[in-house]
Amino acid sequence: MTDYRDKLVVPGFVDCHIHYPQTEMIGAYGDQLLGWLQRYTFPVEGRFSDAEHAENISAFFLQQLLSNGTTTALVFATVHPQSVDALFSQAAALNMRLIAGKVNDGSPCA
User: Fold this and answer.
1) d(CA 17, CA 84)
2) Fewer CB in a 10 Å sphere around the end CB: N or C, the chain?
3) Where is the Amidohydrolase-related domain (predicted)?
């Protein structure tokens, strides 16, 4: 038996809105929304057309969630199907619960 008297035991946290393709941009320079999307976000998200890149970032992203106690999340991916496939395969291996899917917008990041 383990003594948890001096510990805080809580269920896993839930993140209801997070963008996994923007993991590499955390703390990046800000701008007005449309300019920021065009100059920074869409070029970064465009790299998710590469399945290996999507696998690497999804693995890092999910480890970051878990290391902060998040076990369930509603996750935005990109327009690239491989970004979603990578996310779900990594999440399944870690026994995480996700609501996610391919983003359907007309952004020029494809």
Assistant:
1) 16
2) N
3) 8-103
3-state secondary structure of 82: helix
pTM, to two decimals = 0.86
Contact 50, 108 (CB under 8 A): no
Give the closest residue to 61 by CA, choosing from 32, 100, 29, 31: 100
HSE-up (13 A, CA, CB side) for residue 98: 27
Strands across the sheet containing 70-76: 13-19, 70-76, 97-101
Span 34-93, pLDDT tens digits: 888 888 889 999 999 999 999 999 999 999 999 999 999 999 999 899 999 999 999 999
